[in-house]
Sequence to fold (538 residues):
Amino acid sequence: MMIARPYQVDLITRAEEAFSRGEVPIIVAPTGAGKTFILSRLVVPHTLLIAHRRELVSQISCALALEEIKHSIVGPPMLVRHVIKKQIGKTGRSWLDPTATVTVAGVDTLKNKPAAWWINFRRCLIDEVHHLVRGNKWGKCAEKLPTGCDLGGVTATPERADGKGLGRHASGYADCLIIGPTMRSLIDETHLADFLIYISRKSVDLQDVKTGADGDYIPRHLAVATKAAQITGDVVGMYQAHARGLPGLTFCVDRDHSAEICQAYNDAGVPAAAVDGTDTAEYREDCLAKLERGELLQITSVDLFGEGTDLPEVRAISMVRRTKSLGVFTQQFGRGARKAPGKDRFFVFDHVDNVIIHHGAPDYPREWSLSDRETSGNGSDLGAIAVKMCTNCTMPYKRHLTKCSHCQHEPKPAHRSMPEQVDGDLYLLDAAGMEALRSAIEEIDHSEADERKRLEKKRVPEIGILAGCKRHRLRQAAQRELRATMDAWAGEQIHTKGQTYREAQKTFFLTFGQDCGYARTLAAGPAAELQELINDAS
Fold:
């Protein structure tokens, strides 16, 4: 039996406490945190564990075997034979028992089970529980559970691309989130490998690619756009330049695309295999074994290894499928994070700007919610500071920084007349742009007497002058409050978070969509709205 890490004990304890209160908990922990092990420690007699695919059923079954828990599998005989073979290899014996009260099943194998089959379960645990919302196949399984049955699960990303919330009050069933450690904290504690990201200089034109009901790109449209970009050579070239000889996974848009990139790897002398869901479990396991032994250096696939598969030998992840789904992005990214002997880092090669649209790597804390949300047009909108690609080293860095955090290259904007052209960094404004900004602020700050003179010079009638002076007073009052709020916010960034003044300016622009210069020229209404946004973010 495995020894639980302290954070795993904490998550298990908090989940049991939630069950005792009659709540439905979702345990949130990054890829590589041991979520399958956590599920195995939550098993009680008469537990049903539901997974998405055969690979995950096999993984859960082997985790139960390592904990010496007898269980049955609902699945085809071929899968059962495959699991028995794996369990014998890991533990010396099989832990499958058709009479056991613990059951592992793929969600698709349960749709025709009669009501009587469900009645004895006392707990149901769902792997990748972000799939669970009302009305889909996971939800239909949840509805069949008997009254009083515990329900819960694990995921790295309790968020869906279609915006459906997982909470009972929204589109799902959950009552609470049990938040575990971040990916970065597990890296710092040496439980996970660190990473380096490189972004391709080429891009895929997605202007005509539509989004489906699941909130992600429609696969056939995405495939056309990706193939039209002709980036296959770049995929192989970037791997050869930075990770030659290291085992890797390449995530593609469809089977034809996977076969094309696989052939390109082989043509370049990189032994590769294309694997998809139509292949037998034995063939997939054989390819993974060859990857581990070094007989293969690349496996290309579509979504096959995106969720839950333990692949510690993988040291290079190539993303060639654009996705709006934070879950898909995080799962694919995390395939390289598991530690292995001699492995302290892995590479991520992003050819489709996934790192950009999801605000960087999935290693920092995010604000999760169980509520429904508006889906953004460009990936996850979690209020995080955006990232950009360094034009010198092609690695990503936080967009609020004035220079690349990796190579210290400082980009020079092509145009500098407007704050939006310099990401709100007013230091970079040209002379004409800065003079226009100063003039606009002076117009706000001049006295009421000067405002009267300005209006009189324009031959405004007295009634108009009185109205104009009133607007000027209200505007100045709103500006005093806004500027005090902005100053307090800036102080927090500079003195508490250690940003420079220029970095704070850029952070303000990227966070609120308004540079800190022209913010000081806003009328009373817009000034009050911006002040409210800043207060909400503080």
Q: What stands out?
A: DSSP finds 18 helices and 15 strands in the chain.
